[in-house]
Amino acid sequence: MTPTLNPLLWMIPILPLAGAVINGFFGRNASRKAISTVALVFCGAAFAVALWIALHFSAPSSPYYFPLAHWIRSGTFSVDFEFYLDQLSLVMLLVVTGVGFLIHIYSVGYMWDDDGYYRFMSYLNLFMFFMLTLVLAKNYLVMFIGWEGVGLASYLLIGFWFTKDSAASAGKKAFIVNRIGDFGFLIALFLMIKHFGSLDFAGVFTAVRTLPTETGGAGLLTAIGLLLMVGAAGKSAQIPLYVWLPDAMEGPTPVSALIHAATMVTAGVYMVARSSVIFEHAPMAMTVVAIIGTLTALFAATIGIAQTDIKKVLAYSTVSQLGYMFMACGVGAFSAGIFHLMTHAFFKGLLFLAAGSVIHGVGGEQDMRKMGGLRLYMPWTFATMGIATLAIAGIPPLAGFWSKDEILWRAFGASWVYWLSGVITAFITSFYMFRLMYMTFGGDDYRGAAAQEARGHGAHGDGHGEPHESPWVMLGPLVVLALLSVLGGFVGYGNRFETFLAPVFQAATAIAQESPPESASSTLEYLLMGVSVTVAALGWLLAYLLYSRVPQLPARIAAGLGGLYRAVVNKYYIDELYAVLFVKPLIDGSTTILWHGVDQGVIDAAVNDSADAARHLSDQVRHMQSGNLRSYAGWVAAGGAVVIAYMVWMGVR
Amino acid sequence: MVPLSYYLVLSGILFACGVLGFLIKRNIITIFMSIELMLNGVNLSFVAFAAHWHALSGQVFVFFVMVVAAAEAAVGLAIIIAVYRTRETLNVDQVNLLKL
């Protein structure tokens, strides 16, 4: 397990940073061609280096590392800028650079007409830098830099159209909700420093392995695990901190694809998987992770049913799929979670990009009720998005089927409750994804044109009457991602993926193999597989019936459900609940106590009053300065007299 | 032999006259003369003490005071002339620009 030195490692994060700096500082007056070249070349170079390293990553048991610079040296405690690459980070590395590069290409087409083009490309590269830092970190603090950095990039990109009020506040919301999670992460780091005296992965894990598993009750490791989970819940949009992700759809669609579906939001899963040793020693924290993941998967999926904004559906779907990954981590199937992370990056990136293509094609409209029949106008988008939908629904043999089935199988091994929730979620997922397909592409008539004419103007104001297919610079990435969505799952065939990751999760696999279902007959496995495929097909069938055969039915069902339906449409009023519970008390408290009370009442008052007092006093004293020489002389004489009188009095005494 | 206290009382009277003149008079030259009167009142007490204690340092000090007073007279009179040229008055109550 001794890591070998690899001097290429530091180039991977630095290359996108260079691109970001060049575009950020010099892009304002550069031509779009030059900006695109810089952004693509630097991002592509990072991908190329990553591929090069992956091809040479021959010895499965020996990770790479590269110490870049010293950072903190304080007594025995030290943290350095060090990069580290093992099987787990390699998977993440390829996903991030590969999907990221494709989305860079796509963005060239999607954002070409935007005034902030250079800004957008620079931010994208900046995001790549931070995400790669996160993935390649050798210790928790460097990881934290990347962690915060992707948060920053996410904030910048959600609020990219900052002149729009909703975009600006969505950016703030994402940033603040993430801060809550980061608070937990930071405390976990402090606990590690205090108890293990190290933030290095190897150092921490060695220390943890010497501690007993906390089966009896909650102890230090449970606390660390739960705090890490708080951080992961913030970044990966899990209950109760998921609220920022749907709002993050205010950003441009490539951002939604890159950051809020394929890469950044999976950072929480990666962090939990990376910390698998800690979680293995804290079963209670594991259970919490599994429960949160299961609840989030189910909860977000139900919200997804009733959304009409095409990107909102995908957003809730992302939250739901992330729930799957946490469920997998929670039951000890870390490699299954990472597997789903990878396949999800393919098909969810594809879904978002295809949705972006649709939005692009119909002139900025996002409401699915104003679409329909688009398969006739944009066949390529339809085909690729169809593949992604099949993949996410878990239809074999596409990517989503393999990873989701792996998770469900492992969840069944832990408890049938997880499995059942997972299967229900799979049904709902299949339903709302095919609902999206039917509403967007199905039917024969395009509902947008008439609506647009009725409103009297195109959404972009550039005469978008007829939907059109996107340019090839956008379709290319779609096709590549579609291929990956089809083929990506075969990586996991015959547990190859798990074997590949095994050195990282030695402890985890050891425990998982002790659980009984692993040794149970493969009949059970096929049975469960059959159930999940059936359920996916049922979801498809239901969506077909409701949104293609009998389009009047959904409205009637909605009317029949009444309050329940309204609750789902309004996302169970969670945002409103948070507003009443947290936001309003905080604003009120800040206004009355901190602002009016402390700031104006104490601090401002002290400064202003002392200034007032000085002014009043000097107002009185200034009359002494009359300019009359003889009065000055009088004062001098009086002073002299006082001095003499004092000395005489002292002398007498 | 005149007792020491007589000299001191005279010195005090001279000094008091100087102070009074300084405070009451409006003409700069008179005020200037009042200052000289104060200096000389002090000088008188210096020499009186010097004679009484048979100490020469008091008399030496008087010479210092006289020299300084002469220098001061030169500077002071020059200032007075300058003031008169610009203000065309010697009344100190009208020389009151230096105020808030």
Topology:
The complex is a heterodimer of chains A (653) and B (100).
Chain A: E1 4-5, H1 11-26, H2 32-55, E2 64-74, E3 77-85, H3 87-110, H4 117-136, H5 140-158, H6 165-196, H7 201-210, H8 220-235, H9 244-247, H10 253-262, H11 267-274, H12 276-280, H13 283-306, H14 310-330, H15 334-361, H16 379-393, H17 399-414, H18 416-441, H19 448-455, H20 472-487, H21 496-501, H22 506-514, H23 522-549, H24 553-561, H25 563-569, H26 574-621, H27 629-652
Parallel strand pairs in A: 1-2
Antiparallel strand pairs in A: 2-3
Helix pairs in contact in A: 1-2, 1-4, 2-3, 2-4, 3-4, 3-10, 3-15, 3-20, 4-5, 5-6, 5-10, 6-8, 8-11, 8-13, 10-15, 13-14, 13-18, 14-15, 14-17, 14-18, 15-16, 15-17, 15-20, 16-18, 16-20, 17-18, 17-23, 18-23
Chain B: H1 4-24, H2 28-53, H3 56-87
Helix pairs in contact in B: 1-2, 2-3
Q: How would you concisely characterize the structure shown here?
A:
Helix content of chain A is 72%, strand content 3%. Chain A has 653 residues and is mostly helical. Chain A has a three-stranded mixed β-sheet with strand order 1-2-3.
Structure description:
The complex is a heterodimer of chains A (653) and B (100). Chain A is mainly alpha-helical. In chain A, 72% of the residues lie in helices and 3% in strands. Chain A contains 27 helices and 3 strands. Chain A has helices at residues 11-26, 32-55, 87-110, 117-136, 140-158, 165-196, 201-210, 220-235, 244-247, 253-262, 267-274, 276-280, 283-306, 310-330, 334-361, 379-393, 399-414, 416-441, 448-455, 472-487, 496-501, 506-514, 522-549, 553-561, 563-569, 574-621, 629-652, and strands at 4-5, 64-74, 77-85. A 3-stranded mixed β-sheet of chain A has the order 1-2-3. In chain A, strand 2 (64-74) and strand 3 (77-85) form a beta hairpin. Chain A is globular, with a radius of gyration of 30 Å. Mean pLDDT of chain A is 87; it is low at 454-463 and 512-519. Chain B is 79% helix and 0% strand. In chain B, helix 1 packs antiparallel against helix 2 and helix 2 (28-53) packs antiparallel against helix 3. Chain B contains 3 helices and no strands. Chain B has helices spanning 4-24, 28-53, 56-87. The chains are: A mainly alpha (653), B mainly alpha (100). Chain A binds chain B through residues 622, 625-630, 633-634, 637, and chain B through 19, 22-24, 26, 31, 92-93, 95-100.
